[in-house]
Design goal:
The complex is a heterodimer.
Chain A (H helix, E strand, L loop, with lengths): L1 H25 L5 H11 L9 E6 L6 E6 L4 E5 L21 E2 L2 E2 L9 E5 L2 E11 L4 E6 L4 E7 L8 E5 L5 E5 L4 E2 L14 E10 L6 E10 L2 E7 L7 E7 L8 H4 L5 E8 H9 L4 E13 L4 E13 L8 E7 L2 E6 L5 E6 L5 E5 H9 L3 E5 L2 E4 L1 H4 E5 L6 E6 L4 E6 L4 E6 L5 E6 L4 E5 L12 E6 L15 E7 L6 E8 L6 E5 H4 L25 E5 L2 E9 L2 E3 L2 E6 L3 E8 L8 E5 L7 E3 L4 E6 L5 E6 L12 E7 L8 E3 L3
Parallel strand pairs in A: 14-19, 37-40, 39-45
Antiparallel strand pairs in A: 1-2, 1-35, 2-3, 4-5, 6-7, 7-8, 8-9, 9-18, 10-11, 11-13, 12-13, 13-14, 15-16, 16-17, 17-20, 18-19, 21-22, 22-23, 23-26, 24-25, 27-28, 28-29, 29-30, 31-32, 32-33, 33-34, 36-37, 37-38, 39-46, 40-43, 41-42, 41-44, 44-45
Chain B lengths: L3 H12 L9 E7 L2 E10 L2 E4 L4 H9 L13 H22 L2 H31 L25 E5 L2 E7 L1 H23 L2
Antiparallel strand pairs in B: 1-2, 1-5, 2-3, 4-5
Helix pairs in contact in B: 1-3, 1-5, 3-4, 4-5
Chain lengths: 653, 195
């Protein structure tokens, strides 16, 4: 009897331990019952499509990745500013010009802020724009092909960070400089920064027909750091707002020296006024040197043109165009709510969030409520433009987005959380932790008049223990929250490619129907295209040899080439004759000092091969294209430089 | 007022011209890799893609088993249209003559021509499915050891390796059928009217 009760006691203890252990292990996130519903909310069944596209920048990877939400599945990494051997971006002859700059070929950059084109203040899904931070450039990605089709360098700029945000009808994509620099660049003592360096805010016009970009004008502002920006919308359409820090104009130890002023500024720029000024001949054309690279979908080829001048505007010469709104403590994010009334300055060293009112700003301008000026630009009285303050919401506010239902969501880097608060009452409604140290956040359409307030995506800077460890360098990560209820709910963590710096989201239905399936062969205008096997040939021009080759399931034409010599420079121009959805072919040549090519149906791409020794060298298809993929190969015979073997080529002989 | 039979005969003779607007037949091939199936519409004077590039892609598939490419044109594309125009004119002529026995004659002639057309289509299909390149990449045999053919069904649905092939008449064929039905009814109505 005694033994029996002991057994019962032991098993009861055992059960307790089990019960005790299990929830403890999971508790760090949320309860068991909740997580099952979270799983359902992000589950997209096999073969089903996600509700949203998320275009997530890769930060230091220089690219732009395409994910589905709510699943967090990765679909494509669009190469933009960095070479990508997988897609031959910057390796093949066609795309090398895309990475040309005034500094020559730059194979890498830091891609930060994607923004989707808009019409009448709503996402239209034609293009995504994104900025290169390091060597200042703005790129445009065409959302019918999901390829980068245009890159324009931004002159007089450095640390192109307050970019690339579009106005309400995509009149402009705007690029502000983070680092002020001498304009024009010149050899001068760094210590003479103050008063001599300039901060260029560039307004790049976007052609409504073909999306072509052109630097319409640059506003040469005082030498502050222009950190982030956003357009006015609705009632404030026609204005653009830029946060500034380092209004101290320090050039060394900025962490201390640029953190001294109690208030920095949000610069409010009336771009419509400046546009009118330059359209009437205002501004000054100054010599410059910057690259404009355009990829043509029909020639499948990019061209790079150096532009030699740029129109600059001195703000003091356009009275009433620029004002400064005092904003506490080195504001980082500069976000405008869907109505266009509220301008949120996320003072990253402040404990409070400062919100300015557009209506009050206009009134302060009207009634000249100024507190002095900076280099001739009026500084508006802080209390006269202040709409309200969100008191002590967290530590280190960085960025705010809006759900279109009167709520704002702000990230706090230091306290590592997303805080939901109400516009107008400035009350904090909810807060949820992020894992860890969140930077930007994204609500699809959150930078437009019409947000789709279903999810918020938090993009973190640190993940530490959130995933299986992979040595000192661990994955980067984003987190998805459901924001349909009063309280936010964490649904999903998912790894990302590169630093998920910022993102732009859009309902899939806006883009999906326009996504191209193939390139039409009859529209292929590539200079070296062979549009049928009958057009294939090999042409020698001195030491340069051009191979006009085709590929179709499951062979190359020609697949035997003889008469190539050591010392030749052989250009392979290969056209994929397929016209079927999702039948790319790849190609690579043994020892070629370049990447493979991955060629879509109807497309032509080229790579260069400089054979170094005599022999017979194989090439093959690198994409598993068909049942006879392994048979898709060919040979090139390379003879000594002095041989007199005639050029010949064949298929199936 | 025009007689009902005459009206029907004239209508029937015109209806068959629908074959110049709508496809006669359609062959559709379904496979897991083709969520949008491949399809070919057969007109009396043309083979057409159901979706852009379908015929090219059918050819690409079929070359693995040694089937010939679907030709750009076949002699029937000249003969069939001439026959249909001829029959339409003849039908109108008979209609204006208003003799119901001619209506029946027209109907029988058209039926024979249609049967000949279907038989011709069958022969082409048989050749297309059986006359395979001896150097075919993949050769399949039936359980009895004979060479497997890939003839699509004349009418209906059939599994061919990884594909399910559907072969069904289209709107053009219905116009032909409706036209012929009109002339057939015209005969009976005409017979009644002449009593």
């Amino acid at each position: 009897m005694k033994r029996l009760s002991k057994l019962v006691l032991l098993s009861a203890l055992g059960a307790l331990t089990l019960i005790g252990c299990n929830p403890a292990g999971k508790k760090s996130d949320k309860g068991g019952a909740l997580s099952s519903s979270a799983a359902e909310k992000v589950y997209v069944a096999p073969g089903e499509h996600d509700e949203f596209y998320a275009f997530v920048s890769g930060g230091f990877s220089g690219q732009l990745a395409v994910y589905g939400l709510p699943s967090g599945r990765l679909f494509k990494v669009i190469p933009v500013f960095s070479q990508d051997a997988e897609k031959a971006w910057g390796y093949n002859e066609e795309t090398k010009p895309m990475l040309n700059t005034s500094y020559g070929f730059v194979p890498w950059d830091d891609s930060h802020h994607p923004d989707i084109s808009q019409t009448a203040g709503e996402l239209d899904g034609r293009y995504v724009f994104i900025n290169a931070n390091n060597t200042p450039r703005i790129a445009k990605i065409d959302l019918t092909t999901f390829e980068t089709t245009e890159i324009i360098e931004v002159p007089n700029s450095a640390g192109n960070h307050s970019s690339s945000f579009v106005t309400e009808n995509t009149e402009y994509v705007v690029a502000g400089t983070r680092f002020s620099v001498p304009v024009p660049q010149r050899d001068m003592p760094i210590s003479e920064y103050k008063g001599n360096f300039k901060g260029a805010l560039s307004f790049i016009s976007v052609n409504p027909e073909d999306g072509g970009m052109d630097v319409k004008f640059q506003l040469l502002m005082p030498g502050f750091n222009y950190d982030l920006s956003h357009p006015g919308r609705g009632k404030s359409h026609g204005w653009f707002f830029f946060t500034t820090y380092n209004t101290e104009e320090a050039s060394t130890l900025l962490e201390v020296n640029a953190s001294q002023n109690d208030k920095d500024f949000i610069a409010a720029v009336n771009w419509k006024k400046i546009e009118e000024y330059v359209n009437n001949g205002g501004g000054k054309m100054m010599p410059a040197n910057y690259a404009h690279n355009v990829y043509d979908e029909h020639t499948h080829t990019a061209t790079s043109t150096m532009k030699k001048e740029v129109l600059v505007v001195d703000p003091s010469e356009v009275p009433g165009a620029v004002y400064l709104l005092p904003t506490p403590k080195s504001p980082h994010g500069c976000d405008v709510d869907p109505s266009g009334e509220y301008i949120v300055g996320n003072g990253k060293l402040s404990a409070n969030l400062t919100v300015h009112s557009f209506t009050k700003m206009l009134d302060a301008i009207e009634n000249k409520k100024f507190d002095g000026d900076a280099y001739g630009i009026p500084i508006l009285n802080f209390d006269s433009v202040l709409a309200g303050t969100v008191e002590q919401p967290g530590l280190g506010p960085l960025h705010t987005e809006f759900d279109g239902k009167g709520n704002a969501y702000t990230t706090f880097f230091i306290s590592s959380e997303v805080v939901k608060w109400k516009l107008g009452t400035w009350d904090v409604v909810d807060r949820k932790s992020t894992y860890y140290s969140v930077g930007h956040l994204m609500i699809p359409g959150g930078n437009s008049q019409k947000p789709f307030g279903k999810y918020v995506l938090a993009m973190n800077k640190i993940t530490k223990d959130r995933y299986l460890p992979t040595g000192p360098e661990v994955t980067q990560s984003a987190q998805l929250y459901d924001i349909t209820g009063e309280k936010m709910e964490l649904l999903l963590d998912f790894p990302t490619v590169g630093e998920p710096h910022y993102a732009a989201g859009i309902p899939a239905d806006i883009i999906k129907p326009n996504s191209k399936k193939i390139f039409k062969l009859e529209e292929n205008k590539h200079k070296y295209a062979a549009l049928s096997e009958a057009d294939t040939k090999v042409v020698r021009n001195g030491k340069e040899v051009h191979v006009y080759m085709t590929m179709i399931r499951s062979h190359f034409s020609p697949d035997n080439i003889e008469g190539i010599k050591v010392g030749d420079k052989v250009y392979f121009h290969i056209t994929n004759l397929e016209q079927d959805y999702d039948v790319p072919h790849g190609v690579s040549m043994i020892g070629a000092n370049t990447s493979e090519l991955l060629i879509m149906p109807g497309q032509t791409e080229s790579f260069v091969w400089e054979p170094k020794q005599p022999g017979v060298w194989p090439f093959y298809c690198t994409d598993f294209c068909s049942a006879l993929h392994q048979e898709m190969q060919g040979y090139v015979r390379v003879s000594p430089a002095n041989s007199n073997i005639e050029l010949s080529w064949s298929l199936g002989e | 007022m025009m007689k009902k039979s005459k009206l029907l005969m004239l209508l029937g003779s015109v209806l068959i011209l629908g074959l110049f607007i709508f496809p006669l037949w359609n062959i559709t091939l379904e496979a897991p890799q083709y969520p949008t199936p491949l399809g070919m519409d057969i007109y009396i004077n043309d083979f057409a893609d159901a979706n852009p590039h379908d015929i090219k892609n059918i050819n690409l598939m079929n070359h693995y088993v040694g089937m010939k490419y679907i030709p750009e044109s076949i002699p029937e594309f000249k003969i069939f249209p001439a026959v249909i125009i001829g029959m339409s004119i003849l039908g109108l002529l008979f209609g204006f003559l208003g003799r119901h026995k001619l209506y029946l004659a027209w109907f029988i002639l058209m039926s024979l021509l249609a049967l000949a057309g279907i038989y011709d289509f069958y022969l082409w299909e048989y050749d297309y499915g059986h006359n395979l390149d001896p150097k075919a990449i993949m050769k399949f045999t039936n359980p009895d050891g004979s060479i497997m053919g890939f003839q699509p069904p004349l009418f209906g649905t059939k599994d061919i390796l990884n594909f399910t092939a559907h072969s069904y008449p289209q709107l053009g064929a219905y116009f032909l059928a409706a036209g012929m039905a009109c002339t057939f009814i015209a005969f009976f109505v005409g017979k009644k009217e002449s009593k």
